[in-house]
Amino acid sequence: MKKAFIALCLAGMAICSVPAVLAQTLSTQKVPLDPNVKMGRLKNGITYYIKKNTEPKNRAELRLAVKAGSVLETDAQQGLAHFMEHMNFNGTTNFPKNELVNFLQKTGVRFGADLNAYTGFDETVYMLPIPTDSAGLLDKGIQVLEDWAHGALLDPSEINKERGVVLEESRMGRGAQQRMRDKFFKVILNNSRYAERLPIGKDSILKSFKPETISSFYKDWYRPDLMAVIAVGDFDVAKVEATIAQKFGSIKPPVNPKKRTKYEIPLDGLTRVAIVTDPEYPQHAIQVIYKQPNNKEKTLQDVRNNFGQELYNAMMGQRMQELTQKADPPFLYGGSEYGDFLGNLDSYTSVAVAKDAGSMKTALTAVLEENARVQKFGFTQPELDRAKKDFFNSIEQYYKERDKTRSSTLVQEYLEHFLHEKPYMSAEAYYEFVKKHLDGVTLAEVNGLAKKYITDKNRAVVVMGPEKSKDALPTEAEIKKLLTEAGKDVTAYVDDAVDSPLLSTEPKAGKVTSEKKLEKLGVTELTLSNGVKVLLKPTDFKNDEILIKATAKGGYSLFPDERETGIFSSYLIQSGGVGPYSQTQLQKFLAGKTANAGPYLSELTEGIGGNASPKDLETTLQLIYAYFTEPRKDENVVKGILVNQKAYLENQQKTLTPEKVYSDSLNAILTSNNPKRRPLRPESVDKVSLDRAVEIYKNRFSDASDFVFTIVGAFKPEEIKPLLEKYLGALPSTDRDDTFKHANIFPPKGKIEKTIYKGLEPKSRVTLISSGEYEYSPENNIQIEALQEVLQIKLIEALREEESGVYGVGVSESTDKFPTGHYRFSVGFGCAPENVDKLVARTKEEIAKIKEKGADPKDIEKFVAETQRKTETALKTNNFWLDYLDDNTFLGDDLEEVLQQDKLLKSITVASTKAAAQKYFNDDNFIKVVLMPEKK
Asked: Is 876 contained in some domain?
């Protein structure tokens, strides 16, 4: 449900498009909240929401929401709402210094990935997932929330240490986007308070504010009447409610609370234009923002009116997508959509990304014309019918999965209710409401929205481009003229929907020739008469989801001299549609169905992926069969795709961003500048041949005998066997013996150091890589995974908490089995240029400690807990099993490997991490690449 209100009448008539009696009835009824949510308010003013939910089991999602963000800061506090969020992780009453992170990591909660927070203009939200299957952990989690609410210690020494971290976060956000945003924000926000209070604040204040200044913010705004505690998970609701009352009830409200001003963005009726450029911005983009007063969903009529907004956005999105299917598309990307804006406003926003400066007016005109076309002629009844089918299908799916909805999804609904007054209906109530009222949404009603959304009042236009294109960008006068004149000559939309069978001929079904049970995994392996293998993993994780993935060896590695065409081949085929349907016609044909499938061709593999609801499984299998047997090429669509791709790459080449130069340089070093690993360039597109792409695609999909299909989800093997025999068993088979031709490109041996000078901002990036040969095995894999995590923990402690030199640091590892074993360790972080040498030295120091003494036993404990918790949850998801079975089959690994994890984890010791560090942190094969700002 989104915010919108429809009070529209048919053009030129005084007859309301919503039946008056219905509107009057619904407008008097408040939106019913989910009765299964225990909502209340303590005497001191704290609001709470509690709901029992068992997805995932033995877990809870906790939130502390505070209606206080950067918009409430005084001039001297700019950035301190966000700084306060940081300080709540740096010492509270019950968790001094860094004990909070340390404690939670031992329970399997990862800092950053799980434990996190964010600060916005109007709110600050703390997020804590916590296990509930260990005694006292849930209570401890609620204790953490209480500490955040009023127990921050705000130790001056900790504040001073955190200054560097927050300044590094600020540094990370610098660049072309930030510089342009600073120029246009006041324009689109009408010089309101919001334009002056970006959450990151001002570096000058972050460096020098006094502890009492942040204490004042904490005291003024972290108070009971502005707070909510939210708990959703696998627990006893009554016990949680009692714990919340006991821990939060003693917080005393302030005697004379400071007024919580509700700041607004004024609407002045004007059209404001901002034209901004930057030397490091590589695209040419225009946004037109039609600002509207925000409408709350207070009554059922508001909910009913929102259907129109959903349908309008869906139909407009379909039309915009169709424009990209032309031989010469008017833009790289275009779209128009109604939704939330900021503060007290919603907006209808139209966006166009042009191919170059010279085509910006063309791109903007195309978007404006589509808006005008809807204003003038409206949508068509078939478009509305399809949009209704899709909308109802999505709501029906949500309803079917109501007992399988994850706690992290539900907790967001209650956050939105507290922070933004958005209602939360139960899945059952909303489904029944949609079923009853969706059909009543008329074409006239939805068409009338265009006149409400698109007006000549309260508009803001933002034009963004590279500095070198400044003189070629449209002027303010030209933009205003387009806004007035675009669309005068538009004609009505012509719907190209067709209604033909997806398959031209009935498949000749095959048979299951063998069946094997993998009892420990709950997997059935079928072999079909054409050689196709199928791994079936029925689950009860979702009620309405079936996932499919098929993989075979080969890929475009078998066409080494046609890399560019190989890369694009499956995408070009899929963009052409399938059988009798173009891509846009196919989307229309699938309206109301949960049925999707699409092919892919990678370097080493070809395959197909799809998903379906149980009721639409046959349609998805038909699509898979069609992509094997009736691929379709569309020359006009492909021409448009390649034109756009070349324009995009040309923009990148013309305006090389620091990030692009750095990543390309790093890639060149890691691959020894091998042509088979070079990034695509504009001239790469010229080498792509559609006819040859079709030949390569047909070559790889002409033989399904070496394909292994993995199917996971809500089905019974015996019930779907006939469908598998009919469609998968009928796939073409030549029984060829296929494999891939691995390029064998890995990081070079030896020591390499390179510094790249690019960028206007005083910020650097560092990447340190160790690599070498590797004996691929489950035993070694778990050791290298442990080494990655313990080093990550240590570097966060050292570089962030102790040196205050980074906002974040990433440690990653990768291993390859083919063609021979290789491993790669990578450490990456951003920092101030003057701190590069110091932080690289400290990184090497931490690595040397592990090589000398092994990992800290506490860090090993954290790794084991995190891995166990992560796996425990993953094992209850369809996506995990789909990828796990597919990957292990491709690699030839033991499918039962996941069942050995506890045994493998026990092999992680101080001694094993020491041995692994000495083996894998290879000083002989070491690469160091640094990005520094341009020398002045």
From this structure: yes
